[in-house]
Amino acid sequence: MKKAMDIAQKNLAIMLLIIAAILFGVTTKNFFSVTNILNIFNQNAYLIIAACGIALIMIGGDLDMSVGYHMSICGVLCAMMLTRTTIPVWVIVLLTIIISVGISMITTFLTELLGIPRIFVTIGESTLFQGVAYVLTNSKTVSDLPVSFKQIAQGTVGHPSLTYATLLMALIVIIMSFVLSKTYFERWVFAMGGNITSARLAGIRVRKMKYSIGVIVGLALGIASVILIGRTGAAAANTAAGTEINILTGILLGGVSIRGGEGKISNCVAGILLIALIGNGMQLAGWNPYYQYIAKGGIMLGVLGFDMFQMRRRSIMNNQRKEEA
Questions:
Q1: Tens digit of pLDDT for each residue in 221-254?
Q2: CA 72, CA 236: separation in Å to the nearest integer?
Q3: How far apart, in whole angstroms, are the C-alpha atoms of residue 142 and residue 163?
Q4: Are the CB atoms for 40 and 273 separated by under 8 Å?
Q5: How many Å apart are CA 76 and CA 235, to the nearest integer?
Q6: pTM, rounded to two decimals
Q7: Which of 214, 226, 215 is nearest to 74 (CA)?
Q8: Nearest residue to 168 (alpha-carbon basis) of 251, 272, 48
Q9: Residue 29 pLDDT exceeds 90
Q10: What is the arithmetic mean of pLDDT over 281-306?
Q11: Which of 49, 247, 268, 309 could form a cystine bridge with 224, CB 3.0-4.6 A?
C-alpha cells in the first residue's frame, strides 16, 4: 500500500494526463490531431519554460508569487523598446532577459536582507510590479511589434504548427531535466529543500545557491516573457497576470511538495500540460470556458490535500520508527 501511494504521488500528473487525454480523445473530434497537439504545446510553451524556473525554487524549499507581474514588466519593457527605439531585435531580447535576471536577483537580495521566506517578499513585489507595469503603459496596450520579433514565437519549422517556441521549450526542459538529475547542483537543491539547516552543516553554500537559483529563475521568466508577447503580438500591464496560479497548480500536480525537497521537471511539465489539456478539451467539447477555473481550483485543492496527507502519513511513520528505536 505504501509503495503504491508513493508511486501515485510521484507520477500523479502523468497518470491524470493519460486519463484526461483518453477521455477528451473519445468525447471530442480532432483532439488527437497533430495540429491540435502542437497547438497545445505552442500555447503553453511560455508556461512550461517559466515553470522550469519556479519548480527549482519550490524544490529548494521556497515559493515565488510574483511570476505574473514579473513577466508583465519584462514584456512591457521589451515591447516599448521594440516600438520606440531602433535597437536591433536580438539586443532587445537579450536586454529583456537581463532585466528579468536583475529583478530576480533583487528579490533574492531582499529575501536574504530581510531574513524572510521568498514567498512573503514576492507577495509584496507582485503588487509593486503591478503598479509599475500600469504606470509604464499608462493602462494601454503596446502593439504593432516588429514581424521579425514575433517570428521568435510564431515562426514554424517542418510542420505548420511546429513553432520555434515549442522547440525552445523542449530544449530548456531537456537541459533542466539534466541539471536536476545528473549534477551536483541537483543534490544541493534537494538538500536545501529537505532541510536548509542540515544543508548548511553539510557544507553547502546556501546563500550562493539561492543567488544561483535566482539567476536561473530570471533567465526562465525572461525567455517566457519574450515568447508570450511574441505569440500575442502585444504587451499590456496585465499580460501575464495570474500565470503563477497555473504554474503553481501544474508544479504541485507534478509531485513537487509544497514543503520542497522532491520533484522532477518531467512531471512538472506533465502537470502544466494537464491543465492545458483540460482547457483545450473543454473548448473543443463546447463547454462553458468558466468551468476551466472551477476545474483548476478543484485540482489545486485536491493536490494540496494529497500533499498534506502524505506529510502527515510520513510524520506518523517517522514517530513510530523513533518509538520502536
A1: 999 999 999 999 999 999 998 898 889 888 888 8
A2: 7
A3: 23
A4: yes
A5: 5
A6: 0.90
A7: 226
A8: 48
A9: no
A10: 75
A11: 49
